[in-house]
Predict the 3D structure of the following.
Amino acid sequence: MDERQARAWLATAVQEARAGLAEGGIPIGAALYAPDGTLLGRGRNRRVQDADPATHAETAAFRAAGRQRTYRGTTMVTTLSPCWYCSGLIRQFGISRVVIGEATTFHGGHEWLAEHGVEILVLEDPECIAVLRAFVKDNPELWNEDIGE
């Protein structure tokens, strides 16, 4: 995947992460793009806002995309390495590639996805790292709840 295009798509996920933070939630955002580059869906972690432990950014973007005949060739863009729950969703539905803003703050299941044929691009974006590090520092209990610790 072209890194310039990946960074452009990441901007959508970053907007979602910032919106989630402004709502008092966890600043993780995601977007799902079609093979032709059309934005299918976008979303943010809404566990706090909706009191719903299953509303991760990737699942929100996936749901917003609606039913697709196939997810082959699609790209999930996320500000943070996907957790095991979201990695399972990506694998279950055959999403072809994942663009990750950062895997420094949290190292999720992206290596497992790569082992199973999913194309992975980790950007280690400074903005993604800074936003999440600040959140973790200021909200350690909420962060630990989000990652299941």
Q: What stands out?
A: The mean pLDDT is 96. The longest strand covers residues 39-44. Residues 43 and 61 are 4 Å apart (CA to CA). The chain is about 45% helix and 15% strand.
